[in-house]
Amino acid sequence: MTGSHTAARRQLRLPDGRLVWCTRPAEASLMWREVSGDGFYRRASQQLQPGDAVLDVGANVGLVSIAFAAEHPGLRVIAAEPVPDTFECLRANLDQHVPGGVAVCTAVAATAGTQQLTYYPDAPGNSGLYADRQADDALTRTFMRNGGMDDESIDLLIEGLHDGHSLEVPVTTVSNLLSEHGIGRVSLLKVDVERAELDVLRGVAPADWPRIDAVVAEVHDEEGRLAEFCDLLRAAGLSPQTRQDPSLSGTELYEVYGDRS
Predict the structure, then answer these.
(1) pLDDT 10s digits, 185-232
(2) DSSP-derived secondary structure for 6-20
(3) CB neighbours (10 Å) of residue 21?
(4) Distance between alpha carbon 210 and the CA centroid of its chain, in Å?
């Protein structure tokens, strides 16, 4: 791990002309492409109505919240992000683009407290409670190769990308967030937490599951995590479907969408 590092806040202009805050514009641009593509985020958004409540867990700089709120004015968004650098961007973006959106500086897991998180300043979207530098390098390498990049260029881009340092961050649970923010019903729980997906679901009290209509998530399928994640959704009465974006072929990254249909 390297020492402390604070990333400078910068602006990115989205394809629709809106300006958003981030620390790594190239990464944020890739994230926006994912959010606005034909994957499960789009399917999840199509089920929302104005006034619905969305819990955005692992919000990063808030691009998913921004996309959903743009399509459904009046959406109630609670967005959780534990990394201070990223959280400052999230809060600014919600203030600007998600009226009434609430940013909470916390990780979300199975139990409340504090945990150590590995923060990658040069790849903030890959930071997490279970960050694995070797695995994150390999995943990024495959993604770049799928995009047509040659190995020499990939080597240059990956060098130091996942140099990280440890942060102690506050941790809460989904059920605590529902209680603290007075949310009676969650139309959508979005989860993107870099290998901590199961922890998030385990932090939903049994009595709270009937109040959650749908879940959309990115899941790292290591050690059977994808199957276990889907099993937890089924046990909660949701019907999960999985897909893998072609750009992530050969990696362990999958999308999951489950609702009560």
Answers:
(1) 999 999 999 999 999 999 999 999 999 999 999 999 999 999 999 999
(2) -PPPEEEE-TTS-EE
(3) 21
(4) 23
